[in-house]
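Obj: model holo form, ligand = flavin-adenine dinucleotide.
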Amino acid sequence: TTTPTDLSRSALLFLSRQEGLKNAATRLGPLRELASRFIAGEKLEDAVEAVRALNAQGLMASFDHLNEAVRTAEGTRDEVREYRRLLARIDAQGVRANVSLKLTQCGLLFDKALALENARTVVAEATSRQSFVRVDMEQSEVTQATLDTVCALHAEFGEAHVGAVLQSYLRRTEADAKALCARRVRIRLCKGAYLENSRVAFPDKRDVDANFIRVMRVLLDSGVYHGIATHDERMVDATLEYAAKQHLPKGAFEFQMLYGIRRDLQLRLAGEGFPVRIYVPYGRSWYPYFMRRLAERPANLWFVMKNLVKG
Ligand code: FAD
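Output (holo structure tokens):
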């Protein structure tokens, strides 16, 4: 059955992919202001300031320069420059953070070899600075190419410098998790944020959640350092319970959450001694990221409507 929530989720995820709206939205003052709840700012300096504040509260971070589906080779080179600048800044200022990178930001949609070359440059920079690149996962059309690229980089640079993301809504994910763990690839497990059809993804949230727990157990059993990325307390509790049952020390994995979401839970887990990393997006191209955050929670949409009407 399709609920009103499913409909608003699909509509928002559809809108998130409309290129024309992207530019219009960034100029809309009220929308921009609302986006600031989820986005640390438009400039690198804004994001560094936000991460310093998180570090002071005992939270680690992962910077994300917002810009996906880049369409020109020149555009992808700008992204590589930004990430090198970011890694240099992290190193120079000693902030506790790594970086998250999207392969469509590196050219994956039009030139796979270019995407690999660009990502390789970023991972090489991270390696030389003892840092780490998490390759975000995007829509299912690029899942295989993304995992192939991460595995190639992992073979060259090792588990300490590059890792993957898996989404529990995809039917293939449990098998991917086992294969990646066998190679000792670090994984961030999340539920998945894109619009997918039922052929590749579980349409029912209960199945997505059950798969999250199944895959979380595969990860925790693997002896590799993974990230459990969720704001869902039931998923957090299931993870804590399984980790205790397996007698895992607190530093055996980390929790990850998004900037501006469930700050209470972020601080509570950090206060209990678990490593917690916050994903901190910044940049001018915040529209698709912001729309995916709205789609996750209908209450966010009402909040936006009210504010837009108020003008
Ligand atoms: P849900 O069941 O969606 O939410 C549980 C509870 O969390 C909600 O009841 C609410 O209290 C709170 N919550 C969740 N979302 C919001 C929101 N937007 N606004 C306010 N409250 C909210 N997805 C990808 O597809 N690829 C990635 O690479 C990726 N990387 C991520 C990295 C991190 C660190 C995190 C935390 C998420 C990432 N995601 C990624 C997004 C993820 O797939 C989910 O869409 C998102 O985390 C919501 O799922 P949830 O586990 O929080 O559970």
